[in-house]
Write a structure and sequence with these properties.
- It is a single chain.
- The chain is an all-alpha fold and 1287 residues long.
- Helices cover 66% and strands 2% of the residues.
- The protein contains 65 helices and six strands.
- The strands form three sheets. Strands 1-2 form a two-stranded antiparallel ribbon. A two-stranded antiparallel ribbon has the order 3-4.
- The two termini are 70 Å apart.
- Keywords: Chaperone.
- Residues 1006-1182 form the Tubulin-folding cofactor D C-terminal domain.
- It comes from Apodospora peruviana.
- Residues 381-597 form the Tubulin-folding cofactor D ARM repeats domain.
- GO terms for molecular function: beta-tubulin binding; GTPase activator activity.
């Protein structure tokens, strides 16, 4: 629902300085290197550069500036000459070098290419420079970038030769970026003020053209100019084939080739030689496929692609635009128009035209061509009045063609058609321009229906379901462009404003449910912005949308509509566009909008980025400025932008916004309760008008009604409103609640979970209404008095307040201590609510269960004591029933809601002193024991968290939490037991925070070591909860330090390891928790080894580094860690999830030389524990870890002092390890034997010298080579074992 919290443009502006500085530092060294053969520290261009560095410069440093390209402007004058000079120097240097060696240019680039492509890690320098230049063109625009390139004409033939050679030599194919940059650079060089004949070399010039094209390249459909006694410059004859070839390219080369052709053909010397005429005739021939086919009988039409026609059309558009101030193209206008128009308007049976205009880009380019022709025609008519009829016929045909294309399926075509129509309208006289505007407005009125709507002010409303949303987008864009150019006369403004207001609230959805109305609203924002910018205040104030004199001005109406769109629209760009348009409206027309300056500050461009914030804060801020904004927003919230939104989260936010705005309006009303009643009546009217299938709207409306009831206590507490109005509001609300609950019981809805959630929220919000109705006599006595003085409690406060025990107790005591019976209306609500909750509490949706369990609390508060006991017993019976046929790791929702309902209503049961108080705890424990389904355990622990049930029944539930902390059940879904551990950790945190001081040390002692273990385990989501729970039992300063450390950092694991040796725990816990330091270290390492072995790479590195740091601190730490690991090997023999990581960590500590420093470990016993771990196991990874440990022990060197303490035990351990390696060489699995061989080879390479137990790095070790020991015969293996002394 929301856009990203941190806006990308703001983030980019913050880091832009670093990105630019990095690019600035890297550029020169990227392009150049020191000249080893030269002197003076000169830098020469590199022939090749790293592909990875190119990618970094482009993707990481330049691409982020696409949103804010202007930040690069100060640096382009420095960077672009550096890039251009390096490109030129590379090209010139290579050409000169190989010319001196007598090689062709083709060979130059062939050799360069063969060298540069030896490794994919390197790329040629021109390719890298071209990619950077293209990226800059993409960011800033090619027209800006090309101005910084060299315009010396001496480079014309250099680039042409390079381009031609790249085409002739298949081994030197350029990248498309290189072709694009060279073609673009050539188009820039075509601006040279000299005739091309004067700058063409003699070797490149062609023979005189005397009617034949001998010696000239053949171009399909193109006829070279036939001017006699005149030579075409060699540059021209070389440029034309290349440019025409790439004009049909599907890539960006087409744009550069088009620019090159336009520049070449529009040169005066080329026009005199007939190049322009030849190119125009060629283009016309290409757009008439039948003619082209007759000229090229041996070529088929199927070879042409839409890109070919796009290139031809873009060329025609380019020369027409370039000749806008001249008469160079006047003689071709009529012929071009009818050729392009006939092809674009051809029927679907015309295969050639279908190929030509099958692409949206081709249709868009065709529109640009026709637009340019029409503009030139209108310009000529303003100067010369002859042939006026045919010219106006052309213009009228053009306008009709554009109006048809406003409904095109592709957005770029609609954009082009709307812009073209506005440009042409600007050139027309006032009468004809007004007709165009009227035609657009009339099109907007087509298929707009009026339907009866009792909720509307006039009793009817417009229905836009029959209109074409694509056509509306094009029409709205046209209106906006017309306004931007101030084309419509002031007399058309009322109809235009009406259309813009309709467009601002337009919405349609496709068959798949996606929105297709966003474009229309976006265009309407642009239109309102243009209207405010182009028309004066007097002109706009003169516009009257309504006939009544008391109606607000059009500026106020537009401002209100923009506030609605900025606050409620589901699309972020519409909210921001509306905010920008509002700022323009208020700024251009001061003192015409109520609270205009403050309104702009409230509806800020950045504030509306998040939809939740716009609904929650922006809408409320506008309401506080003036009631008219709040009333308008309320009305819009009841439409598709609020309660009718397809997103459930948006409907929830809209409902809350409806309640807050209603409360704000009530606070400024003379009778606040009456204002609340009006909103309730409005919502109820909409609810009753809904059909059964309109579930989403019903969901939003019920949530809105709930939000209005939430505001009732605030109004009463402010002592506003008389008792009579209050009593009527209470009775109306009770009646509405009964009606809705009865409706839920009798009707079946398409999405029952939405109705269940919304009505449950309504029951919660109705708590103050039920509370007031329960004191009906007091209300009647106070009926005519000023305020009602009973303290009402909002429903959400009751169910979410952490300290609600006192509130519930006082309310229950007050309700059951009075002699006045509970009114029948309240009893009816309780009865209906209980009946509906029976079906809602067994659903699986989290939103429904959370709301329904809270509603159960409200229901139980207003039930009689007898009925309360009956309901509780019914729920207890429900949770005792275990569903059959559900596996341990399966999913079931049976009775999961009843767990939360019972625990949340525990305080009511306790206050009433019902005998079921202990029954609740017994039933939950019984279900835990009998039902091993993971989802059931999760639901039970979740229900205990943040409820009084756990606090008052610690003894009954602490064992249950202990079991949850040890749940490591896994199935095909993975470690599903982590879901139970996660909830158990949260329950532990709640218990530690809420437990009384007397029993705190005992409670903490039972669970602490388990929390310590989970704080170090591999799963991030478990570890982060363990970190937060562990901080509860630390001293404040150390708890703060622990929370600051990232839960995957090296510092965090160091903190956990150091916790035993420091007094960081709470003073009351130091003695009981540190009573058994060995057990402490064992539990901590059980969790830590999983992070050190099976976690992600960064976690493994951080954990092992922290373990090494801890061991390096003191020898006692080494002894503690190693001894604990050995004890875990013995105690966790049946738990592979602990045993395998422990073996891996032991092998790692041997590898880094830490385990060998342990003074308490018996290596022989360690080998025996490892042997037990590998005994008859099918876990290859466990066997691999055992091999590593055996190898580490077998590779130990004996001390020089043979009589040193522990030397004999070490010797026995080494011998045992070698025997175990020898035994594993006979393992039936080839993979295991290969693992042993790898370990033996590593030992032979790492051990030198000859000792009684060491390997000899000579001939015996060489026996490991040249044999596949996984497939070797058993006899050969035994021989190897004997020769290596492993038996």
């Amino acid at each position: 629902m929301d856009a990203p919290e941190e806006e990308l443009d703001i983030k980019l502006q913050k880091i832009s300085g670093d990105l630019i500085a990095d690019f600035d530092r890297s550029l020169v060294l990227f392009l150049r290197k020191p000249d080893r053969g030269g002197a003076g520290g000169l830098l020469v261009v590199r022939p090749r550069v790293r592909s990875r560095e190119t990618e970094r410069l482009v993707s990481s440093l330049l691409d982020p500036f696409q949103e804010v390209p202007q930040l690069l402007d100060p640096h382009l004058p420095k960077w672009l000459p550096i890039l251009a000079d390096a490109f030129l120097e590379y090209t010139q240097t290579k050409t000169k070098t190989h010319r001196r060696r007598g090689l062709d240019t083709e060979d130059v680039f062939s050799q360069t290419k063969s060298v540069s492509t030896r490794s994919e890690l390197l790329m040629p320098l021109p390719a890298a420079i071209s990619r950077i230049l293209y990226t800059l063109c993409k960011i800033r625009g090619e027209k800006v970038i090309v101005h910084f390139l060299s315009n010396e004409t001496k480079y014309l033939e250099l680039f042409l030769s390079a381009l031609e050679d790249s085409e002739r030599n298949t081994g030197n194919k350029w990248t498309w970026e290189e072709r694009y940059v060279v073609l673009l650079w050539l188009s820039h060089l075509m601006l040279a003020p000299f005739d091309l004949a004067t700058i063409s070399s003699s070797s490149s010039s062609t023979a005189a053209i005397d009617g034949e094209d001998d010696g000239l390249p053949r171009i399909r459909g193109f006829e070279w100019p036939t001017t006699r006694n005149t030579s075409l410059p060699g540059i021209t004859t070389r440029v034309l084939p290349c440019a025409i070839k790439y004009l049909a390219s599907p890539g960006k080369e087409r744009d550069a080739a088009k620019a090159l052709l336009v520049r070449l053909s529009m040169r005066r010397d080329m026009q005199e030689l007939g190049v322009l005429d030849a190119l125009v005739n060629w283009a016309l021939g290409q757009l008439r496929p039948s003619v082209a086919k007759q000229e090229n009988e041996n070529e088929t039409e199927t070879e042409r692609t839409p890109y070919h026609y796009i290139g031809v059309l873009s060329f025609l558009s380019g020369i027409l635009v370039s000749s806008s101030d001249t008469s160079d193209m006047d003689r071709y206008l009529s012929k071009l128009f009818y050729t392009v128009h006939s092809s674009a308007s051809a029927s679907a049976d015309d295969e050639s035209s279908n190929i030509m205009f099958s692409s949206a880009l081709a249709r868009k380019t065709g529109i640009k061509v026709i637009r340019a022709i029409a503009v030139l025609t209108l310009r000529n008519n303003s100067a010369v009045n002859d042939d006026m009829t045919s010219s106006m016929e052309l213009v009228e045909t053009t306008i009709g063609f554009f109006l048809e294309n406003l409904a095109d399926n592709d957005t770029p075509v609609r954009f082009a058609a709307s812009k073209a129509l506005s440009i042409i309208t600007l050139k027309l006289d006032a009468d004809m321009a007004s007709q165009v505007v009227e035609a657009v407005i009339e099109s907007l009125s087509r298929n707009v229906l009026w339907i009866k709507d009792p909720t509307a002010v006039a009793g009817r409303r417009k229905d836009l379901s029959a209109v074409n949303p694509l056509e509306w987008h094009g029409l709205m864009l046209t209106l906006s462009h017309l306004l931007y150019r101030r084309s419509p006369p002031a007399s058309n403004l009322p109809d235009i404003v009406h259309a813009l207001i309709m467009g601002l609230s337009f919405e349609r959805r496709s068959a798949s449910g996606t929105s297709v109305g966003t474009n229309v609203r976006d265009a309407a924002c642009f239109g309102i912005w243009a209207l405010a910018r182009r028309y004066s205040t007097a002109e706009l104030l003169a516009v009257r949308l309504y006939k009544t004199s008391s109606s607000p001005s059009v500026l106020q109406i537009l401002a209100t509509e923009l506030v609605i769109a900025a606050s409620l629209d589901p699309a972020g760009n519409i909210r921001r566009g509306s905010s920008a348009a509002l700022q323009e409206l208020v700024g251009r027309h001061p003192d015409t909008v109520e609270k205009g300056i403050w309104l702009v500050q409230a509806v800020d461009y950045h504030s509306v980025a998040l939809r939740s914030r716009a609904l929650r804060e922006v809408a409320l801020g506008a309401t506080k400025l003036a009631d008219q904004y709040g009333e308008a927003i309320l009305d819009a919230l009841l439409g598709w932008r609020g309660v009718g939104d397809v997103d459930a989260a948006a409907r929830r936010a809209a409902g809350l916004s409806f309640g807050k705005i209603t409360a704000e309006l009530a606070n400024s009303h003379k009778d606040p309760v009456q204002r609340l009643a009006r909103s309730v009546s409005l919502v109820l009217g909409r609810l009753r008008a809904l059909q059964v299938r309109q579930v989403e709207e019903r969901h939003g409306l019920v949530l809105s009604l709930a939000a209005v009831l939430d505001s009732l206590p605030g109004v009463v507490e402010a002592r506003k409103g008389g008792g009579g109005a209050f009593g009527g509001f209470v009775q109306t609300s009770i009646a509405a609640l009964v009606e809705i609950l009865a409706d839920c019981q009798t009707k079946t809805y398409r999405r029952p979970e939405l109705i269940a959630e919304a009505v449950s929220r309504l029951i919660i919000s109705a708590f103050p209404v039920l509370q007031a109705a329960s004191f009906d006599d007091a209300v009647q006595e106070k009926e005519e008095q000023e305020p009602w003085n009973i303290k009402l409690v909002p429903g959400p406060v009751l169910v979410t307040d952490r300290d609600n025990a006192g509130i519930i107790s006082s309310l229950v005591d007050a309700l059951y201590s009075t002699t006045t019976p509970v009114p029948d209306s309240v009893k009816k609500v309780v009865h209906l609510a209980h009946a509906n909750l029976s079906s809602w509490l067994v659903r699986s949706e989290d939103e429904v269960l959370a709301a329904a369990s809270d509603a159960a609390l409200v229901t139980l508060v207003f039930s009689g004591k007898t009925e309360c006991e009956s309901i509780v017993r019914e729920w207890v019976t429900k949770i005792r029933q275990r569903p059959s046929g559900v596996a341990r790791g399966g999913s079931t929702a049976a009775a999961s809601g009843y767990f939360s309902a019972l625990t949340k209503t525990y305080q009511v049961v306790r206050t009433l002193a019902l005998p079921d108080e202990k029954l609740i705890a017994e039933a939950i424990n019984e279900r835990w024991r009998n039902d091993k389904v993971v989802d059931t355990h999760v639901a039970i622990l979740q229900s205990l968290t943040q409820t009084d049930t756990l606090k008052y029944n610690v003894g009954e539930f602490i064992g249950l939490i202990e079991q949850g902390l040890d749940d490591y059940y896994t199935n095909a879904r993975g470690d599903v037991g982590s879901l139970v551990r996660l909830q158990a950790i949260r329950a532990t945190r709640w218990l530690w925070e809420e437990c009384s001081l007397e029993g705190w040390p005992t409670v903490v002692s039972r669970l602490f070591l388990k929390i310590l273990r989970l704080s170090a385990e591999k799963l991030d989501r478990v570890r982060v909860e363990g970190q937060a729970t562990l901080a509860v039992v630390l001293k404040p300063e150390h708890a703060t330090k622990l929370r600051k450390d990232t839960f995957s950092s090296r510092a965090y694991f160091c903190f956990l390891l150091d916790l035993l040796s420091h007094d960081w725990l709470d003073n009351a816990l130091i003695t009981p928790l540190k009573a058994n330091p060995e057990k402490w270290m064992e539990e901590l390492l059980v969790g830590l080894v999983s992070s050190a072995d099976t976690g992600n790479e960064e976690l493994v590195i951080a954990t092992r580094a922290a373990l090494c740091d801890f061991c390096e601190t003191s020898p006692s730490n080494v002894d503690a860690v190693c001894a604990a690991l050995v004890r875990n090997l013995k105690s966790q023999q049946t738990q592979d999830r602990v045993l395998v990581p422990t073996l891996e960590v032991v092998a790692f500590l041997f590898h880094v030389g830490i385990f060998t420093r342990c003074r308490t470990v018996d290596y022989k016993k360690l080998c025996l524990q490892v042997q037990k771990a590998a005994y008859k196991t099918g876990n290859v990874r466990k066997i691999e870890a055992c091999v590593r440990v055996y190898g580490a022990i077998a590779g130990l060197l004996l001390d020089e002092d043979k009589s040193s303490s522990g030397q004999s035990g070490k010797t026995e351990g080494i011998k045992e390890a070698r025997r175990r390696l020898g035994a594993l060489m006979l393992h039936p699995w080839p993979r295991v034997r290969s693992l042993v061989v790898d370990e033996l080879w590593g030992l032979s390479m790492s051990v030198s010298g000859e000792t009684p137990t060491s390997f000899v790095a000579d001939a015996p070790a060489e026996q490991l080579k040249g044999v596949d020991w996984g497939k070797a015969e058993k006899g050969a293996v035994k021989t190897l074992v004997a020769s290596l002394r492993l038996d």
